[in-house]
């Protein structure tokens, strides 16, 4: 089963691989990275970066190589860290889960006022396993989905 990120990368890859040969040239590879605001070179010279991620040692990038590159990107690490920090800000008692009352209190502190029905709908959208609490994994997954989805629609 594909992760949320892999799913969006597959869609972007297929849309960019116009000749459908299963390979992208470096310019198209860079175009996808740019779409998701992922650093192109990861602080390495082009030749080293390309060789490091060109796992089949040919002139083109496969979707698997694109996924590998993104999974090891500074951008993805930063997004995950940012979302974890946001989670911890809401998780006032630091028990590793967010309950609906914690969200309500956090948002009231921030001047965000929603009726119970709206708050419950948002909560259910984050509570992927419907157990009445949101874990950092669920929270991060939803925010990553939103991040990648908002960029794919621009293709």
Give short descriptive properties of this protein.
155 residues, Recoverin, domain 1, 2 domains, two-stranded antiparallel sheet, 8 helices, 2 strands, EF-hand-dom_pair, EF_Hand_1_Ca_BS
H-E order: HHHHHEHHEH
- What is the CATH topology of the largest domain? Recoverin, domain 1
Q: What is the number of helical segments per DSSP (H or I, 4+ residues)?
A: 8
How many extended strands? 2
Strand order of the largest sheet: 1-2
- From the N-terminal CA to the C-terminal CA, the straight-line distance is 24 Å
* Spatial extent as radius of gyration: 19 Å
The proportion of residues forming helix, as a percent range, comes to 55-70%
Shape label:
elongated
Mean of all residue-level pLDDT scores: 87
CATH class of the largest domain reads: Mainly Alpha
What structural class is derived from the secondary structure elements? mainly alpha
How much of the sequence lies in strands comes to under 5%
CATH superfamily grouping of the largest domain: EF-hand
Count structural domains.
2
- Report on the biggest sheet: 2 strands, antiparallel
- CATH architectural label of the largest domain: Orthogonal Bundle
Poorly predicted segments: 42-48
């Amino acid at each position: 089963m594909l992760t949320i990120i892999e799913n969006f990368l597959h869609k972007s890859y297929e849309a960019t691989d116009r000749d459908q040969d299963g390979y992208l040239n470096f310019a198209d590879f860079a175009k996808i990275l740019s779409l998701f605001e992922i650093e192109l070179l990861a602080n390495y010279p082009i030749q080293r970066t390309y060789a490091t991620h060109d796992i089949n040692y040919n002139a083109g990038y496969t979707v698997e190589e694109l996924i590998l590159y993104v999974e090891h990107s500074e951008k993805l690490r930063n997004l995950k860290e940012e979302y974890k920090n946001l989670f911890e800000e809401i998780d006032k008692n630091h028990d590793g889960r967010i309950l609906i009352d914690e969200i309500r209190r956090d948002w009231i502190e921030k001047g965000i006022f929603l009726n119970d029905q709206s708050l419950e709908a948002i909560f259910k959208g984050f509570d992927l396993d419907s157990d009445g609490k949101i874990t950092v994994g669920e929270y991060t997954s939803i925010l990553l989905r939103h991040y990648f989805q908002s960029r794919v629609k621009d293709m």
